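Here is one such protein, fold included:

. . .
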Amino acid sequence: MASVFDVSKYILDTIGGRISAMKLQKLCYYSQAWHLVWDGVPLFHEDFLKWDNGPVCRELFDLHKGEFYIDSGIIAVSLLSKDGISGMEKLNVEQVLEDYGKYTGVQLSELTHSEEPWLQTEKDEVITKEMIKEFYSSLMYNAQK
């Protein structure tokens, strides 16, 4: 299984530049959410917490704390998992980047604030993977109707 650092590095390498820490957090969140829907299992084991600016992965936050912009150089090789990110996982992340990458970090944060997983979670609590999967699965199901 990949780690949030594997996914972050892949996002940053794919985008090929610097992005805001907020945008990276939200792209990782949506990568996790849609991977749960499409593959039925988590993309990475780390959780997201409900913070004022939307879902935040604490482990990733601890890495970029105090930085507004991030590039892939911030992620040390020692943080990457031994398994890395697989081909199917990359395809899922690429789809998320295609769908959500055009938005700013603030826009993505506002989007998460309108969605059930964030709305149904108390401040500083974990937004559970089960809640994430259930909500985004319902979006996919409703889109197919």
Observations:
- The mean pLDDT is 95.
- The beta strands are 19-20, 48-51, 54-56, 69-70, 126-127.
- Residues 4-144 form one domain.
